[in-house]
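Worked example

This section walks through a single chain of length 658. The input is the sequence exactly as stored; nothing has been trimmed or padded.
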Amino acid sequence: MNSPDATRQEPTFAAALERYATFDLFVTLEPEGSRWRVSHIDDGRLVETRVAAPFEPGELDDLLERLGWSRSRDARREEAEPRAAAIEIGERLYRALFAAEVGRCWRAARRRAREEASGLRLQLHGPELDALPWELLCDPESRTLLAASVETPLSRVPGKRAERRLQILVEPLRVLVVVAAGDLDVDAEIERIDDALKPMVARRRVVLEVLRRPSADALRARLRDSESPVHVLHFIGHGRYDPDQGEGWLRLADGAVDTEGVAAEPEEVDAGRLARWIDGSAIRFVVLNACESARHAGSTALRGVSEALVQQRVPAVLAMKARIADDVAIGFAAALYRALAAEAPVDVAVAAARSHVLDQWTTNEWALPALYLHSENAQLFSLTPRRRRRWELFPAGAVVGGLVAALVAWWFWPPPASDPRCPSPRGIHLPMVFVAADAFYMGSDERSDERPIHLQTVEQDFCIGQYEVTREQWGHFMGDDVPEFREDGAANEPVRFVSWNRANKFIEALNRASSGDPFDLPTEVQWEYAARAGSEDLFFFGDDPELLHYFGNCRNPVSDDYEDAVAPVGSFNRNDWHLYDVHGNVSELTKTIYRPYAEGPPKPEELEEIRYVRRGGSFDVIPDSCRLARRFTIDSEWVQRDVGLRIVRTALELDDIE
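Given that input, the structure is written out below as tokens.
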């Protein structure tokens, strides 16, 4: 089989939209069989439309024949597949679904989503009509293919859905690739999946495992292994559907030979048996790269492989509606896992993968993968979960060793949509996060100058830099006025060797490029409030320093990715308010004059030899010195190799934003 064409572009994924609303659509077949009932719940009100089925008996089969989906892969690739046929099917389906008042509700929901810069996921409830190619849905006005747009991801909901509560993953995400075929380009597909996940694999946040041509017993044993549970099952092989039995099957050990070199008889696993193996497991997502894995017997027996798994409470299953070419499947898988690695919800990741295939191949195979969602929550992996205490992270009595269970997160989370209240300085993108005023408990009992823990009020909303100021950003405003003793480094590394006085010159340059004087160094109160992001623990993720190397660049005996050196900003997990590197990397200057909390503000006679507070620790200090409450000092002219800055600005009032 052909491997991916070298001239085709690698898949990329920028970011999912910050928010997604859900538009549930219920489609049922009227008793006479020639009409559909299309329903939607709009703000608690049932909206219902009855429409004629958009295809005459046998007509859809003829259209699908034009697409080539009923032919073999090789025959399909030899003939040009007209996009016009796909568009025709998609537009006719669209007009049937979004007719009359249901259509008005849909268009209103789309307008709201665009106004709010959010997405609108379409979830189709219609098991009686599951054989229809809903993935081809096409808006006749904009010619938008809904299922191939990250703005309108599409998924199927088979039957009655019962929400499964997804627990936070505390071990590395385990992706099991099961190779069950010898006639496919499986090595290329595995290589592309590995490339997409490589940053997370390197940081021990994902474990990628390959199981080649397993027997049924071997596969069952691996899926039921509670010591190293599988979270994502990716099957590469062949499947079939038996219409007489209404059953889907997967073929195992296909192409294997015995010890004497004689071809072994392949085992087959029916959908029900596979579903029982997965029952009660940690699996959240199953990808079936097998032909006919998405087929079932209509309303009488939902026994296709995909639907058997969904009914077994697997939150999401991706399956093929027909045979798919190797190179397309490989490209699709690469784009899918790249988007998942960027923390896209599963339906958005599938839409991004469809879009990649649509852009890079001329066939209509982009629409063959069908996504079935059992879970109402399409964000299957809580990659950067809320703050949790140590006893929530680990089972009682668990021994925390060098390979502690990791919170799954992409090594560079794309920034959230820009808040209009926090504009960047003119001339450069410097992402900032809006922080609402409130009260919090500041300080700790760990050191004398951190005591007492006290309730501190933040009087005004403010904005704070999502990242530490980089070398590139410093140079943009300061030109040749660079910190002394600087070393060579990347543009996206934090600037360092910065004195307090020089940091304020940088602030002055920012303000000259802006209206008024909105920018400044943070106060110590602002810094700790934003860094904690609601946490009352030693670190924003809990109390355990052995987890620190997943969240910050500090000197760490467990793992030191950057060998006592500065790291590019955003290389570690963010806190709950989307701030990076509050633990380590560079020690961050504040505008606050240092005093132990218990002694109150400095007296006038003490202002002659003042020192300023710096926070967060750095790559050059041990984990205890990277605690949220830890305080360091520096005088106004002193320069250190691990000192940099993060900025704040005045938040704009919404009424003042044009």
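What to look for: The CA atoms of residues 106 and 319 lie 27 Å apart.
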